[in-house]
Amino acid sequence: MTTVSPTPDTTPVVTPPPAPQVDAAHTPPPAMRLRELAFGAACAAAVRAAARLGIADALGEKPASAPELALIVDAEPAPLRRLLRALCCYGIFGETADGKFVHTEMSRLLREDDPNSLRYIALWCTEPWTWEVWPRLDDAVRSGTSVFPETFGKGFFDYLHQDAGESAQVFNRAMTTSSVQSAQDVAGLLDLTGVSSVADIGGGQGHVLASLLEKHPSVHGTLLDLPGVVARADARLRDGGGLADRVRIVAGDCREDIPFEVDLYIIKNILEWDDESTARTLANVVAAARPGARVVIIENLVDDTPSMRFTTAMDLLLLLNVGGAKHTRESLVGRMTDAGLRVGEVHPVNAYLHAFECVVP
Predict the structure, then answer these.
(1) Which pLDDT score is estimated for 25?
(2) What is the DSSP secondary structure assignment for residue 136, as one 8-state letter?
(3) Dist CA 335 CA 306 (whole Å)
(4) Is-contact 52 112, C-beta < 8 A?
(5) Phi then psi for 23, rounded to 5 degrees?
(6) What CA–CA distances, in Å, run from 89 to 7, 105, 121, 248?
(7) What does the alpha-carbon distance between residue 282 and residue 337 come to, in Å, rounded to a whole number?
(8) Which residues make Cβ contacts (< 8 Å) with residue 25, sequence separation at least 6?
(9) Is the pLDDT of residue 286 over 60?
């Protein structure tokens, strides 16, 4: 995509305005704040529009006007300026004194080429189906179950893969992005002293496993997930990949069986289903493992975390689409204990994830 690029000898030095800061002296009164929150869909829609238009990709390091950007992203200048003005209110893009637009730390995260890009995650959180289920949150709270089957006539994943192919692709890209970005954090946290074999249970494409094996050349690994998932495993793990000689890829469902024994089992972000599925998965790990094996469970928490606004929002979305739930520290420890695991220390992985160290008695 063409971008508005800097010209070395003519580009002015511009310091983007900081994101709006809220302090005690400038806190909006309650009525204004509630109005802003009630219009929260406008903010989400603006972020989605920016991602779909590719505005962040179009904007280079040189300040650009709305008409300049409009030519690149194929939009009308006046509405584009209105969109950018709304985004600037949240610190997503900044506006210079002469009415041009510049990047901020947040707007750069909407670029597809940013190593920490959140473009596909932003799109996933605002996919068309979300706008149909959010208004029914009161129904889900009353019933305690997903509203998805009643709204769309089928379960969430059936709908995604049968009726919403583009959304399924966005989902896959978002999950891959999230997994790749957190894999290094997990690999940096876990101490594999004394571990010769590790398994990633429900590990998706195996990004966490690949990062661990790259860091620990003497360790062998196993990736377990559904057949359609492991068919798209990280290239490093597949035949011909740099780690293939130390990996076995097992197609299966961890809720049904875990057919191998290793020193360390990793379970990351999959205990968000109904309680029965969670209990079966943990029971299968305990049944497969030898006494003394380590189990590390990594999850988002809806308490004890600096990302509570994000995780509580995801918790509500899980209720709507699959009837699942994010965990509190207490609820997760309770489920691990009920499964027979001995729970040890809990470590933050990053701002969004916590790792629970467990041992099979």
Answers:
(1) 54
(2) G
(3) 23
(4) no
(5) -125, 175
(6) 28, 14, 21, 50
(7) 10
(8) none
(9) yes
Q: How far apart are CA 355 and CA 102, in angstroms?
A: 38
Are the beta carbons of 343 and 296 closer than 8 angstroms?
Answer: no
Give SS3 for 300: coil
Residue 242 has φ and ψ, to the nearest 5°, of -65, -20
Which range has the worst mean pLDDT, 102-111, 271-280, 282-291?
271-280
Q: Please say whether the beta carbons of 95 and 17 come within 8 A.
A: yes
The tokens for 301 are 């928490």
Residue 221 DSSP SS3: strand
Tokens linked to 358: 């467990």
- Please, which pLDDT band fits residue 337 given cuts at 50, 70 and 90? very high
C-alpha to C-alpha distance for 261 and 239, rounded to whole angstroms:
22
Of residues 182, 253, 256, 195, the one with CA closest to residue 224? 253
Name 28's Cβ contacts closer than 8 Å, sequence gap at least 6.
Answer: 22, 36
CB 330 within 8 A of CB 271: no
Alpha-carbon distance of 110 to 56, in angstroms, equals 6
Question: Any alpha helices (H) in the chain, and if so which ranges?
Answer: 30-38, 40-53, 55-58, 66-73, 77-88, 105-108, 119-124, 128-133, 137-143, 148-152, 156-163, 165-189, 207-215, 227-230, 275-288, 308-321, 329-338
- Bridge partners (DSSP) of residue 265 are 199, 295
Q: What is the pTM of this model?
A: 0.86
Encoded tokens for 242: 């740099």
Assess contact for 88 and 94: CB atoms under 8 A. yes
Task: Report CA-CA distances (Å) from 338 to 81, 112, 330, 334, 355.
Answer: 55, 43, 12, 6, 18
Residues in the chain, how many?
Answer: 361
- Contact between residue 160 and residue 167 where contact means Cβ atoms under 8 Å apart: yes
